[in-house]
Amino acid sequence: MPHKRAKRSTREAERKSRETDMVPTPLSSEPIPKGMARILGAERVRADYRAQQKKKREEEDRDRKGRDTIELLPGESLREFNRRVEDAHRPLVRGALKRKNEEKRREKKETKKRKRDESDDEGEDAKGVEQRPVREFATVSSSAPRRLNEVAQAPPVLTKGPKRSGVGKDGGKAPAVSMARKVILERERARVVELYRALKVSRETGDSDKRARIDCAGL
């Protein structure tokens, strides 16, 4: 059957026939582990960087010494010499200006920070002064405390009744008006009504006479 494995003895014989005796390789020819390779590479990179920095410092020192000992070359005009001096000292001037500007910016930043801190401190002090203790709501004092579902012992006594009511000062009814008083009030009322009617009639008569006189004058 195609999917059936061969016997164990057959497989071992085939494996032994494929194996060959080889001489072990020396340690120098073995590949370096990746971790060790990274470490060695980093050390090499640092060494190259240090060499470049050293070379750069040497060149700067040499240029600085050359600028410090600038002299007029033979056959060089004064104008060319001045230009060479300016070119040599321009990096120094630029670096000095840059450092000065950085110092100004740093001082300005520190001043702003100090002012902001002072304003914050003043604000905290003002808050502490403005804060007042919280007072509780005043409660109305009463000799007899009110209780829930309290039962009254007696009905209330009205000492003063509303306006135009029949209740007196002592809580009783107002005294009744006598018959004679009623007759006098009715007569007075009738007299006032008659006077009002007569006044109204006389006023209407006066207005009609006035209109008649105006009409006659117009004719």
TrEMBL record:
Residues 1-176 are annotated as: Disordered. It comes from the Eukaryota. Residues 9-21, 41-70, 77-90, 99-110, 125-135 have a biased composition (Basic and acidic residues). This is Uncharacterized protein. It comes from Rhizoctonia solani.
